[in-house]
Amino acid sequence: NPCCSSGPPLSIDWTYYTFAPTTSREKAASLDPVNGKNSVKTELRIPVDAYEKARGERMPTHHLILSREKREEMLLASGYTPNDFATVVRNMIRIKNQRRQTVDNLWAESMEERLERIRKGFSRLCGRKKGKSRYLYDKWQRSKGVETNSTSSFSKGGIFYK
């Protein structure tokens, strides 16, 4: 998600950490019902009321924003290198530019669709498939034993019998 104004985001990739169940009840719940084997869960289920009591006051949004320096410090502590930062920032810039281009071109979308419909209609009117229909007509006539002159038109009597 390239929403950082500068520097690398904290979510460089999609890897996540799993945790093993701790209580016997969680261990029983983690058994796969199909084969009975233990499967590691990647989710924690808490009743909504318990979560609401424990979570405390919401933080203002300006407290949720981390500075570039703080994000880089956290990522360096997690084992990422400045080269990783540069790669991610380049990808972020590319994605931001693609999104900006999409937004900038939205106004022209309806015009492009109209032009495409006009182009299709024009090609139908101009008889672009005329050559193919002539070819099929000639093939049909040959199958009946009639030879055709493919350079002449239908109205000029371009059919010669053997």
From TrEMBL:
This is Uncharacterized protein. It comes from Proboscia inermis.
